[in-house]
Write a structure and sequence with these properties.
Layout (H helix, E strand, L loop, with lengths): L4 H12 L29 H7 L6 H10 L2
Helix pairs in contact: 1-3
Length: 70
């Protein structure tokens, strides 16, 4: 269920009927931040899922649910 910030933004646009032209892809290296950032910063939830014995919902489902409950 890993997803980039860019792809997440595109999904939000899709479900909230927003203009995806406002989502502009950029590399972290172009941001000129003082601290180094990892290339991939996905949240690993395997241990949580195993500990609570609960399967997390997909990104699509969560964004869709938020869009119909706004």
């Amino acid at each position: 269920n890993n997803i980039s910030r860019y792809d997440f933004g595109l999904k939000v646009c899709k479900y909230f009927d927003l203009n995806k032209k406002n989502i502009i892809p950029i590399k972290s290296s172009e941001l000129k931040q003082q601290a180094n950032r990892p290339e991939n910063s996905f949240l690993e939830c395997t241990k949580l899922v195993d500990t609570i014995n609960y399967e997390l919902m997909s990104n699509d489902f969560c964004i869709y649910s938020a869009s119909i409950n706004q």
